[in-house]
Amino acid sequence: MGILSSARRRRHEKRASYKAAKVQARTEARETAKLDRKKEAYLQKMARKVRKQESRDLKSQRKHDAKLAEATVEQIKAGRFNAKTVLRYTGALRVLLPVAIPLVYRAFTQLSQESTGRGTAAEFSNFVGVGAPQRARIADLRTRIERGNVPSGFAKDANARLDELENSLDNASGMSDSQTSNLTSSVSTELDLLDRQFAEKV
Q1: Which of 32, 123, 139, 164 has a 20 to 30 Å separation from 147 between CA atoms?
Q2: Same domain, 65 and 44
Q3: How does pLDDT run along the chain (202 residues), one tens digit per residue?
Q4: What percent of the residues of the chain are helix, what percent strand, and what percent coil, each to the nearest 5?
Q5: What residues make up the domain containing 18?
Q6: Residue 20 falls within a domain, yes or no?
Q7: How many domains does the chain have?
Q8: Residue 153, by phi and psi: left (phi above 0), alpha (psi -120 to 50) or beta?
């Protein structure tokens, strides 16, 4: 009986030890999962904070850059500037928003047009429909290229590019509103580039 009793006791002890180990393993697994969830939640929270801060910093930088670009445009409008002076100003603006440089060139273009009695606003009445402002700018740029003292190679290339822009606007009638908006924005960007190149050649 003593041997059987000892064997029975050992079996009970083993079962109890096994159950205790299972309980401990489950407890540790739950605690580990709980810690992992807390860690993941913390990381996600920090990531959201970082994104919000980056967004605020970006908005602040954009506002600062826009104000600096507008101030430069006002300086250009207030004084007498030529193409080389404008290029010097835009060189300092290359670290700003992509829209800053076109703003400066548009200001210079506007001054040039006003001084010669020509302007996109005057020609705008001749154009209607999709891309009317862009068509007016194309016509104005053609005139300035024709009358400006620019290399013949540049004039030929610029006119070919203007032809392509006009053709793209001609094909906009069947497009959706979003497609038309993207097209006119793309044409305006290309015209900004041509304006800059024209200013460099004058």
Answers
A1: 164
A2: yes
A3: 456 667 677 777 778 777 878 888 888 888 888 888 887 877 787 777 777 777 777 777 777 766 766 766 666 566 555 555 555 555 555 544 454 545 555 555 555 555 444 444 545 556 677 788 888 889 988 998 888 888 889 999 999 999 999 998 888 877 888 888 888 888 989 999 998 888 888 7
A4: 85, 0, 15
A5: 13-79
A6: yes
A7: 3
A8: alpha
